[in-house]
Amino acid sequence: MVTLSVVTPMYNERAAVDHFVARLRPVLDDLKVTYEVVAVDDGSADGTVSRLLELRAAWPRLRVVKLRRNVGHQSALAAGLRAAAGDYVVSIDADLQDPPEVIGEMLAKATAEDLDVVYGVRSDRSTDTVFKRRTAGAYYWLMRKLVGPWVSGQAGDFRLMSRSVVDTLNQLPEQRPVYRLVVPSLGFPAGEVTYVRAERVAGETKYPLHKMIKLSLDSVTSFSAAPLKLATWLGLITFVVCLGLVVSGLAAWAFGVVVPGWTSLYIAMLLLGAVQLICLGMLGEYVGRIYAATQNRPQYLIAFDTGAEVPVFTSGR
Ligand code: UDP
Ligand code: MG
């Protein structure tokens, strides 16, 4: 009999967690598999953990892993993947935007077609805001260019993975993995199921703009050195333009034409300054990540894991 782990990172999801459990439990019970649900509390400050522990009293298959502080969605997911023990592992958001009913479809597809990964692909995002859809569209377009065409345009972190995929992921030494890019880049046999993205059941998005920007920077820097090459090209282009200006400036001087200087100097100075700062910033993004990698600090710290107390997959339903 296959065993299934459902991994859910949660950050301040007190308002959503009851809905989540109420909808997930019957779905999993109907699957007729042995399962565990690994809820990873990503340093919530709104009582998510105490509510999870209360819910666990009535549903021992709900395992609670509490992280010491907020480390972000992807790192919380990393903690969950390391804790998960199932033959198959599904990662799913806590806000019911990913419908739990699709898990059965994913599992059926994986076992029937012998697949290692089944992506949940959003066929309809009309419940997301225009801003979210546009930024997501731009993000996935860029990622397909930088990482490769195997990155799905509409697959987030709702996916099923086999034990071999999870073991491979768990061995990666990356400090800030972006799973939606890392998983397809491994090249395991993969399939897709489509679903309609629902509205968040309760609470607010936990992905404000600065977290979206951070995810995008992590995505680009972990897969591509293109921005560094862009700096080289920007430098070369600026150099050629400057050379032209130097020649024309010298010619004007030789013919005795006095160039009125202030405006041109001012513009050139600002432009060059901006180009230099942008390039320096790009370099900084990479150097900062190299620095973090050499420090090799823990990606997250676990405050407690209830899974350690109750043996997983031994008790009946
Ligand atoms: N999340 C997390 N840590 C964070 C931010 C988000 O664990 O720092 C979780 C969140 O609780 C949810 C999932 O990641 O289960 C996706 O977040 P959200 O639904 O807010 O993102 P959106 O759907 O708006 O992109
Ligand atoms: Mg969401």
From TrEMBL:
One Pfam family it belongs to: Glycos_transf_2
Locations listed in the record: Membrane
Alphabetized UniProt keyword annotations: Glycosyltransferase, Membrane, Transferase, Transmembrane, Transmembrane helix
Transmembrane spans: 233-259, 265-287
Gene Ontology molecular function, alphabetical: transferase activity
Family: Belongs to the glycosyltransferase 2 family.
Name this protein carries in UniProt: Glucosyl transferase
Record keyword Membrane present: yes
The Glycosyltransferase 2-like domain, residue ranges: 5-167
Organism, as annotated: Actinoplanes ianthinogenes
InterPro entries in UniProt: Glyco_trans_2-like (IPR001173), Glycosyltransferase_2 (IPR050256), Nucleotide-diphossugar_trans (IPR029044)
Signal peptide, first to last residue: none
Protein topology in the membrane: Multi-pass membrane protein
